[in-house]
Amino acid sequence: MSFSDLFDSGFKKRNEDHFAAIVRVAMDDGIITPEEKAFLDRLARNLNISEIDYETILKDYKKHPINAPHSYDLRLERLYDLARMVHVDTIKDEDEQNLLKKIGVGLGFHPENVKYIVDKALTLVTAGVDLDTFIDEMKNMNK
Prior knowledge:
It comes from Neotamlana sargassicola. The longest helix has 24 residues. By secondary structure, the chain is an all-alpha fold. The radius of gyration is 15 Å and the shape is globular.
């Protein structure tokens, strides 16, 4: 096995784990709506998730850990994807927000700040901001 094969498999695993975390949020209410399915389809393409892996993750999404990215920007990018999934879900209830907070802690956000971070993330996503604006606003919220 070459060094590039190791890098590719690690990259693939992280993408699959990230995708599984988003599926976990989508499945929190027990169903995947057409809007959620469309979002998952786009995200799977962007993360290079194969159709076979897509179906496998949908069936057994809980076996994938929530891996915290080392980069703060990557954590924010993953939070953006997760917040968008909550936003497209027609049931934005307290359980789903609590799950998003737990995943936020799993992504490496401090437990004392995660409620504020998640609330801000959902507010920005509801406002329709793009990823770059989301990252800028999240970084500037403590200034």
